Amino acid sequence: MTDSKQTLQLNFQLNGKALEVECEAQETLAEVLRDRLNLTGTKISCEVQVCGACTVLVDGLPVSSCTFLAYEARDKNVLTIEGLARPDGTLHPIQQAFIDEFAFQCGFCTPGMILAAKSLLDENPKPTEDDIVHYMDGNICRCTGYVPIVRAIQKAASGMAKKEK
Amino acid sequence: MSGEKKREFHVVNHSVPRRDGRAKVTGKAPYVSDLKLAGMAYAKVLRSPYAHARIVSIDASRAASRPGVVAVLTQNDLQGINPYYGHAVKDHPLIAIEKVRYAGEPVAAVIAESERAAFEALEFIDVRYEELKPVLTPKEALEKEAPLLHERKFEAGALRGFEGEVTAGKGTNICQQHHIQWGDVEEAFKKAAAVVEGEYYFPMTYAYAMEAYVAIADVNDNGITIYSSAQHPFMVRHDLKSVFNLPVSRVRLIVPFVGGGYGSKSYTKIEPLVAACSWKAKRPVKLQLTVEEAMLTTRSDDAYTWMRTAVDSKGKIIARQAKIYMNTGAYAENSPLVVEKSTNRCVGPYAIPNVLIENCSLYTNTVPASSYRGFGCAQVTLPGESQIDELAAKIGKDPYEFRMQNVAKPGEEFFPKMRPFDGTLKEDLEIAAKAIGWKEPLAKGHGRSVACSGSDAGAYPLTSTAVRVHADGSVTIMTGSTELGQGSHTVLPQIAAEELGVPFDEVNVVSSDTAITPYDRSTGASRTTTLMGSAVLEASREAIQQMVVMAADVLKVKIEEIEVIRGGVRCGEAQLNWSEVISKFYALPDGEVIGRSYIRKSGKFSQLPVFWEAACTGVEVSVDEETGKIKMEKLATVGDVGLAINPALAEGQDIGAATMGMGIGLFEELVYEGPQLVNGSILDYRLPRFSDMPKEVELHLVQNQDGVGPYGAKGGGEASLNSMAANIANAVDRAVGVRIRSAPLTPEKVWRALKDRKQ
Ligand code: FES
Ligand code: FES
Questions:
Q1: Does residue A111 sit at the B interface (CB-CB below 8 Å)?
Q2: Which of A147, A153, A154 to mutate to test the interface with B (most CBs of B within 10 A)?
Q3: Is there a contact between B257 and A107 if contact means CB atoms under 8 Å apart?
Q4: Chain A contact for B655, CB < 8 A?
Q5: Which of B316, B448, B545, B608 has the most CB atoms less than 10 A away?
């Protein structure tokens, strides 16, 4: 057990706003978000990078914040579930589709699931069912049997595509 | 119920969006893991490395003087409280006392200013153990010279959930025994036209609620307040009341949203330990287990079953006999009830004239087993539904037709003394078979199966609620039912909105705070829609009755002159909505009316089970003969739910349950090597993922309004799990001709069976 209680000043963009936070070198991004910044939308489950509950986007890419050192996020853009809806409260199309398609029950996997889906659709706006299954395979949901989540992502994709036109 | 059937529904029977939807997709929904109290400290637990050992001494002084440490709790700190708890039998110490009974049992807890400080202090606790011989399987537990896990005697709890005796605490390793018997089994097997017989094993499984067990306790001079991820706050309250010897009124359990339960958060888990930590530290204390620790807290009972089933020459099932040994681990928890339920459910939803089922659960030095979605049914449906197929094959019948011939019929009293069957399994089976293309040609290496289950629901009728109608016409439901994801916060307002004729959006729910919400026994056994739903319906109607009296008072007419219309009342020309009735009554636009209801074991709920939970599942699998790997090609679920208050939610329960069942059929299993759990992490415990789901999934509901719940509803949400392992085993047999009698059907197991078949 190390006794390195060295603290550091961390600067990054969080949900579109510049932020400075003090933390210890060994703290994970999830710890900083949840414990220091009280952003508890990011959930912790397995803590070994296999369930995806803690997924947040760093520079647009999904990371498991349970094992990702906060330090690694310095000077980057971090998006958490709290930053996804518009400031006026309008839900992101993926959030809305999750509600419309009953794509969650307990909701514990949902923030990570929605952020992983966002990164998928940013990268591939018209995914096939196989694309979705392949991309999302790192996110576990124990409640839904996945079927409605796939449907929600498809629905969000087609809704977003229509808007583009 | 026939009057209800004609009715056109405004809000119920519609898939209205989830009430908790917005909170859950924006990350705002509160779970206990997210909460902090002012002045809160954090606990971490030291766990036993040994499966069975005497604690010679514990010295916590070095840990107690570590930086940031507030206190350490061990067996030496329990003077003044009753440290043993358990709703069935009080066999469970809140922290190990004198001995440890499984590897992973809590031995000490450090309370510190931060989780990290608590964690870092754990290694400074010095525990000396004297190892004892561990007992690891039911067979070992039954041996004559087997060491005893529990030397103490303990009494049956009043809230054990069944009327029979509890066997535990009588100087053996037997936790519970139960048997049922009717007809003459020996005679029936003698004259049978065909018999199948076999031994089956259903594994230990882990529910993996993604939110691991968590609780925050604040014990002070006023009493106890606990925020917990518990499914049944009122049952936990009862345990804490007796640990701390307090009146019920001074124990408060609050449950916000729960991150998955599936039975694993039934009854009391870590709450007594956290409360004792807070009591010792004199501060609020939070204990958040990791998933690895949750795996050391509760699992399902694994079951060894010997079974035989017989038919006569006309293909009618005439007898079933089984002997079941269940492994309940170190503490009883809810296993006595699981034993009773699995005994009953061993019969299956079939009218069998000769039955003998004997069941025995044993204490072993493994993680305690307790409730798990399906409640003992999956354990015995693997043998039961496997044997239906084995028998069909033996007499050359199509297994689907064989089931159609034998399943219990609507209204049939197929199980002595129990409620007549209230489902329509033939209809359900037909839908399931059609959905997976039963009669269509099969590709090579593919196989199909349909299977069913019917459970005497464990839902005990003891429920109360208050429905408050406010002066603006909006409504608050006070309910002890916990929102686990199953949708109670949506279904209950649908019922109140239907009854009171107010918009769904204006009905709010306050739930699961034992200081505020009226008593509800539990949130489990698929009870909420049927029992709490009925309570909300009756309380809404009672509120209406009160408002009729008020309206008569306000309009200065006789009560009989008031006619109830949707959302209000009419009297001649005059019409008042609820808001007007209440405002005029109080002569101010404020105040409220409180509708109440008390549900107990009487009237339409007097005969148990309050409903039969029936469902069918159908699967098509393909088997890779090179690797033994099974691929799910199709899945169909048919929920026999009477009436779905919210069809999308009911279907969601079915697919969720079927997916858990599929996991057990294919790969889920907690594995012990000697006394140690070897796959006690999500890295090693394989769970269903997106890519495991079949491409073709069909979800069906059968809604004949044949239940005793609101508008003919019955419970659902467990049953689709129960038949899945048997379904997969049956489909594999039909695909490649090997019969596997244990779950999970891992590639290795299938491959070995294929190899043996070839030789
Ligand atoms: S909690 Fe980070 S991946 Fe599971
Ligand atoms: S909604 Fe519960 S785990 Fe996904």
A1: yes
A2: A147
A3: yes
A4: yes
A5: B448
Q: What is the pLDDT of residue A5?
A: 64
B578-586 vs B533-555: helix axis angle to the nearest 10? Answer: 50
What CATH number is given for B376-458+608-758 in this structure?
3.30.365.10
Write the CATH number of the domain with boundaries A7-83. Answer: 3.10.20.30
The Cα–Cα gap between B520 and B522 comes to 6
Is pLDDT above 90 for B6?
no
Q: How far is the CA of B140 from the centre of ligand 2 (A)?
A: 38
Residue whose C-alpha is closest to residue A60's, from A84, A29, A42, A24: A84
Query: CA B44, CA B122: separation in Å to the nearest integer?
Result: 8
With tokens 């029979």, the residue in question is: B164
Q: How confident is the model at residue B154 (pLDDT cuts 50, 70, 90)?
A: confident
In 3D space, the residue among B166, B135, B172 whose CA is nearest the CA of residue B152 turns out to be B172
ipTM (interface predicted TM): 0.97
Q: Please tell me if the CB atom of residue A105 comes closer than 6 angstroms to any atom of ligand 2.
A: yes
Q: Tell if the CB–CB gap between B693 and A100 is shorter than 8 Å.
A: no
pLDDT at B63: 98
For chain A, the domains span 7-83, 93-164
**Mean pLDDT over all residues of chain B?**
96
Q: Nearest CB to B210: which of A34, A53, A99?
A: A53
Q: Is the pLDDT of residue B348 over 50?
A: yes
Q: Is B257 on the interface with A (CB under 8 A)?
A: yes
- Chain B residues whose CB is inside 8 A of the A87 CB are none
Q: Check pLDDT > 70 for residue A3.
A: no
pLDDT tens, position by position, B718-731:
899 999 999 999 99
Give me the pLDDT at residue A2, please: 44
The pair of three-digit structure tokens given for residue A17, joined into one six-digit string: 């706003």
B656 touches chain A (CB under 8 A): yes
pLDDT over threshold 90, residue B234: yes
Percent above pLDDT 90 for chain A: 92
Residue B37 pLDDT greater than 70, yes or no = yes
- Please provide the CATH number assigned to the domain covering B9-23+460-604: 3.30.365.10
pTM score? 0.96
CATH of A93-164, one of 1.10.357.10, 1.10.10.1100, 1.10.150.120, 3.30.70.1790: 1.10.150.120
**Is the Cβ atom of B210 under 6 angstroms away from ligand 2?**
yes
With bands split at pLDDT 50, 70 and 90, how would you rate the model's confidence at A165? low
Burial class of residue B564 (count of CB atoms within 10 Å of its CB; 0-12, 13-18, 19+)? middle
CB contact, 8 Å: B291 with chain A? yes
- Is the torsion defined by CA of B276, B278, B279, B280 positive or negative? positive
Which chain B residue is nearest to residue A146, measuring alpha carbons?
B690
- Nearest-atom index, ligand 1, CA of A46: 4
Please list the residues that pair with B672 across neighbouring strands.
B677
pLDDT tier at B523 (50, 70, 90 boundaries)?
confident
Say whether pLDDT at A53 is over 90. Answer: yes
Question: Best interface-test mutation with A: which of B20, B26, B289, B653 has the largest number of A CBs within 10 A?
Answer: B26
From chain A, pick out residues whose CB is under 8 angstroms from the CB of B701.
Answer: none
Asked if A139 has any chain B CB less than 8 Å from its own CB, the reply is yes
* Ligand 2 atom with minimal separation from the A105 CA: 1
Say which residues have a Cβ less than 8 Å from residue B474's Cβ, sequence separation at least 6. Answer: B502, B506, B507, B508
**Chain B neighbours among A 11-30 (CB < 8 Å)?**
none
